[in-house]
């Protein structure tokens, strides 16, 4: 009987080891930006009023719910469910969503291309892990 228990114990330990070996380490942020660029992006978000429509970590008020939450943005897939999630596409989308993705209900934002890049930098820092 002890042999059976021992064999089952070894089998369970082996199953745990195989399971752990199959787990991947969580990916790091896709993109990294200088902290000063990210801080500039946060200020642009506040000035442009992005939080009126989106919940955005780091922006205390308002916490809009018209648009999707941007919490954990670094971990999401395609931008607006359609565009490959790259810094260039994100900057283009946050500046002029209707031209970046036809049918988008997000309005064009009164920000420069440089400010849009900074906003993208801030959003990629919103890692949900």
UniProtKB/TrEMBL annotation:
Ranges for domain Cytochrome c: 36-127
Domain of life of the source: Bacteria
Pfam families given in the database record: Cytochrome_CBB3
Keywords: Heme, Iron, Metal-binding
Name of the molecule in the record: C-type cytochrome
Organism, scientific name: Pelagerythrobacter marensis
């Amino acid at each position: 009987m002890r042999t059976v228990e021992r064999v089952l114990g070894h089998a369970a330990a082996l199953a745990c080891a195989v399971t752990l070996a199959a787990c991947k380490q969580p990916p790091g942020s896709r993109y990294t930006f200088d902290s000063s660029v990210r801080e500039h992006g946060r200020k642009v978000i506040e000035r442009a009023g992005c939080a009126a429509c989106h919940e955005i970590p780091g922006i205390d008020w308002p916490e809009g719910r018209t648009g999707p939450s941007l919490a954990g943005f670094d971990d999401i897939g395609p931008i607006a469910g359609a565009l490959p999630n790259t810094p260039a596409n994100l900057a283009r989308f946050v500046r002029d969503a209707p031209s970046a993705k036809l049918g988008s209900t997000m309005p064009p934002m009164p920000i420069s291309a440089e400010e849009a890049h900074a906003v993208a930098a801030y959003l990629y820092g919103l890692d949900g892990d």
